[in-house]
Amino acid sequence: MDLTKPARNLTLSGAMAVLNAAIAEAERMERPMCISVVDLGGNLLSFARMDGSKALSVLSSRAKAVTAALSGTPTGGAHADVELQIALASEGRWTNLIGGLPILVEGMVVGAVGAGSGTGAEDLQVARAGVAAIPGASPFEDFVPMGAEDTGIIRGQTPR
């Protein structure tokens, strides 16, 4: 029986590449963002708050990155009817806000990026640009958000 397993972790240089690529996309979009990059354990490696971004997005961008790293899935993928329960069960350490992506290389989570200050779709676009800075990382092109944000879902109702 194996008592250990292989792991890969994002380096500071990798985190800076992710951060710089995400900033470049936010600048191209003319949408100032807060961007957080974490390692596979959810520990902050790099962060930027662009001039003009929302102050509360400092917190939400980090929460998105931590959630994506620890869950190994993009944020915003839980149905709106369960997002509050999951947040409560995790003592507020989990968010369903759109814009957090794990950085998956060869099927292993090496870190994550979270972007905030725009709409969910804008945040996701900036996060995808950051992930693209890591060769071989999954861009999650087929990811479809299911949370209430930007989807038109009203709690307890089926979307039309």
Automatic annotation (TrEMBL):
InterPro entries: GlcG_carb_metab_protein, PduO/GlcC-like, PduO/GlcC-like_sf. Pfam families: HbpS-like. Transmembrane segments: none annotated. This is PduO protein. It comes from Skermanella aerolata.
